[in-house]
Amino acid sequence: MEMDEKIEVEVLSEVDSWNLFRSKAGGVVDLFKTVAGNIVKECRVSIACEERNEFIVKAKMSFDEWPDMELEKCKRLSLMDTKIRYHPFPSQIKAPNLLTLSFNCFNDLDEIPSNFFQEMTNLLTLDLSNTNIRSLPASLSSLTNLRTLRMNWCYKLTNISPVVELNRLEILYLNESGIENFPEEMGRLTSLKSLNFLRTTPPYTTISPKVISRLFRLEEFSGNYIENLEFSSENDVSPWKKMTIFKISLGKHDISYFRYHMERTEFRRNLFLTLSSISISHLIQVLLPKTIFLYLQYEGIENVLQLDKIEVSFPNLRVLAVEKCGKLVTLIPCRDYVPESVDQYEGDGVEQGSSSTRLCYLPPSPIFHNLTHLTIGNCMKLKHLFPLRVFQHLSKLERMYVESCSALEILFPDDSDMESGDVEKDKASHPLLNYFGLLDLPKLLSFSGSDSLVVDWPSAKYIHVGHCSNLKRLPLGTHSVPKLEEFTITDQEWFNKLEWDDQRIKAQLQTLLKVMEYSDEAADEDSDEAADAKIMEAISRADEDSDEDST
Question: Where is this region: Disordered (predicted)?
């Protein structure tokens, strides 16, 4: 049975543990707490399995020298968060039956003796995370049965050459390591199923397409600040076609603000494109139909259909965050839209001739039909979002926020000569929409260019409209927002001048009105931070309750 979610389980902190106990027991007697604490300390000194010495744990302890341990029969050894004052490591230990070894958070560990792993040939899992190691010992290559290697938060580690000899390795974690270059020999790790090297800040990581193309069993991939993950042919990208989990950032823009959320998000397939010019790679073409969370900070594109030279409807996309796309004119083009310069895409993976025609039309299937969260900010050439018919088909939309797009005039232009199918032309129903926000859109004139559009948002609780001085009408009817709890604005005078087909609508909103003081100066200073915050809010609120489509 295929699992749709990957749930990370962590140990409760001491404070959280006692709080949980209090909530269940109703209180804690101080004497009992002391006794219980001592019991816990005794238990964590040494945990014995049915056969003595098979499982040895010496965690959060301090020794003058390497502890005396009987390791001949030991299968599990943990020295997590342990400190050894003098001569921390013997040159070699004999542990032929050892399966799991953890030095996670081993204090002051900066060097491992060259032959240390020589007598651990059956080891399956090794954890060196949160240490100060600068290099890996030659004896690491002796671990011919190793399946999982964790070296997260090893900031000083810059060379992992011995890893290439671990031909049975399946899982490799290098999050927050100092790796700048993956050796091409890593392509020999043909058993590798999961490769992870997320990082908060540069230096950027270089990984050769030849490495990825040879990892034909790869199913999970997480990496950001990737500098040159480009592919010369469709054959090089073939491993990505069966990728089930990925969290990838392509480009050099600093998105460290999102790094924590990128790692924590439960979404299985995330793509961050922070590129300065349009360069449509085979990789992007393969990943887009699979992507669930897409973040765009892409200087070269005029609309998102230019991301793929084949028709794509983003079938799995749940969250779309678009920010600081300097040339973006529209997300999805209208019927009569023609790019400013089609020639600029020649040679970048976008076909001439037929491609320019394709950019003017929607894909045949509904686009964004699984989208739940849409956030757009600081796209200064953006004229409109997408045609009204696209907006009408966003039946799963839950939250939408648009901010600081100074050229935006119409949100959803109406292609009047296009067939609307089973959707009423002047109505848009979004049964799950909870929040809708517009902020700092000085040229915004209309939702659809038509005064007749009426929305049906039966679940909406919050609407926020601020600094949209040219917006004269809202697409609200008397029954559009029956559960609305708050209507936030920044200008009472603007609200008073709004045009209404039925004054009862104004009267309803008046009772829910909340006027926020928000100066133009504050808007300018906080626009980037506010946009980032809204994107983070979209990430944190979006979930994967419904099943993902297989691609």
Answer: 520-551
Structure tokens that stand for 515 in this block: 């006027």
CA-CA distance, 281 to 228, in Å (whole number)?
11
Burial status of residue 170 (CB atoms within 10 A of its CB: 0-12, 13-18, 19 or more): middle
- What's this model's pTM, rounded to 2 decimal places? 0.78
pLDDT tens for the 551 residues of the chain, in order: 444 444 444 555 555 665 565 555 554 444 454 555 555 444 444 444 444 568 888 888 888 888 888 898 999 999 999 888 877 789 999 999 999 999 999 978 999 999 999 999 999 999 999 999 999 999 999 999 999 999 999 999 999 999 999 999 999 999 989 988 888 899 999 999 999 988 877 777 778 777 888 888 999 998 876 666 666 666 666 777 778 888 888 776 665 555 555 555 667 888 888 776 656 567 787 888 899 999 998 888 899 888 866 566 888 999 999 999 999 999 998 865 555 544 444 333 333 333 333 344 455 567 899 999 999 999 999 999 999 989 999 999 999 999 999 999 999 998 765 444 445 678 999 999 999 999 999 999 999 987 889 999 999 999 999 999 999 999 999 999 999 999 999 999 999 999 998 999 999 999 999 998 765 444 444 455 555 565 556 555 654 443 344 44
Q: What is the CA radius of gyration of the chain?
A: 28
Task: Please report the domains of the chain, with CATH numbers, ordered by start residue.
Answer: 41-179 (3.80.10.10)
Q: Which residues contact 332 (CB under 8 A, 6 or more apart)?
A: 303, 304, 305, 362, 367, 385, 386, 387, 390
Q: Identity (one letter) of the amino acid at 487?
A: F
Cis-peptide into 315, omega within 30 deg: no
- Classify residue 302 by burial, with Cβ atoms within 10 Å: 0-12, 13-18, 19+: buried
The structure tokens listed for 7 are 């749930």
